[in-house]
Amino acid sequence: MVVETFSEYPPLGCFDVRDMRQTVAVDVIKSVEEKDPSGTKVTRFAAKKK
């Protein structure tokens, strides 16, 4: 998932949550904390593909 702050890039700075074709939440992203890419988690599915 790619996100940005709403003030920096509005199309990637808002989201909605849908359940059973109904919108249940809408919000904007005010800040983003970048994560260290070396600490990424490998899922079992991705590990099987290697």
Report on this model:
By secondary structure, the chain is α+β, with helices and mostly antiparallel strands. The protein has a domain at 1-33. It is 12% helix and 26% strand. It has one helix and two strands, in the order E-E-H. It has a two-stranded antiparallel ribbon with strand order 1-2. The mean pLDDT is 83. GO terms for molecular function: GTP binding. It comes from Corchorus olitorius. InterPro entries: GTP-eEF1A_C, Transl_elong_EF1A/Init_IF2_C.
Give a short synopsis of this structure.
The chain is an alpha+beta fold and 50 residues long. It contains one helix and two strands, in the order E-E-H.
What features would you highlight for this structure?
50 residues; alpha+beta; two-stranded antiparallel sheet; 2 strands; flat
Summarize the SSE layout with pairings.
Elements: E1 14-19, E2 22-28, H1 44-49
Antiparallel strand pairs: 1-2
Question: Strands across the major sheet, in which order?
Answer: 1-2
> How many strand segments?
2
How many strands, what sense, and barrel or not for the largest sheet? 2 strands, antiparallel
Helical fraction equals 10-25%
The string of secondary-structure elements, in order, is EEH
**Bulk shape:** flat
Euclidean distance between termini CA atoms: 22 Å
**Mean pLDDT score, rounded?**
83
